[in-house]
Amino acid sequence: MYGYYGYYMDPTYILVLIGAILCIAASSRLNSTYNKYEKIRSKSGMTGAEAAARILSYSGIHDVRIERVSGNLTDHYDPKNKVLRLSDRTYGSASIAALGVAAHECGHAVQHQEEYMPIRFRNALAPIANISSTLSIPLILLGVILGMYSSLVQVGIWVFAIAILFQIVTLPVEYNASSRALVMLQDYGITGGEETASCKKVLSAAALTYVAGVASSLLQLLRLLLLFGNRRSDD
């Protein structure tokens, strides 16, 4: 019963810890995999920026700029401004890891060009998801303060679920971008067989961080439902 444990100290907190462990493990695997293949130079000698330029050109995309952005693994595609931003570790590096990451971001650019349905749905959901992720926990906490039976708690849980939906929709978008990346790297003569397989390992490790994030959020949602979902039965 909620009254005995409080929101922050209760047996269901183990679910939060499991989620945190999953995220840490996925992040650790990504870092170790990236660091391993960051040390291996590609046979083509192309940098991440050069590989991205070739992929965009061969894909018929000529209105997307490629820019360097600071930070570690901060690579992303900005569809609004049509800018592909590559981090310092990717932009000027000719490593296998850099080529994989650059190609993945190009995969997103191709998705936008082709109006890939999952990414259109994700982009439409993004503004609502951003608000949901910001408001969900404050709403739940406010509901707890005002009383366990406050409807604010239930609203907060639903809002949190919307944020999770965005994460779930993101998964096929990311996996599709990676699949496109591997095909383009091979077809456009940027990587060979073994190198493409190595790029796949880097992108697979990156994808696991998204999976771990979804799993962690679902565990948090389960915790909220266990704490507050059956509150009327205790009335």
From TrEMBL:
Keywords: Membrane, Transmembrane, Transmembrane helix. It comes from the Bacteria. InterPro entries: Zn_peptidase_2 (IPR007395). It holds the Pfam family Zn_peptidase_2. The chain crosses the membrane at residues 12-31, 124-149, 155-175, 207-228. PANTHER family: MEMBRANE PROTEASE YUGP-RELATED. This is Peptidase. The lineage of its organism: Bacteria, Bacillati, Bacillota, Clostridia, Lachnospirales.
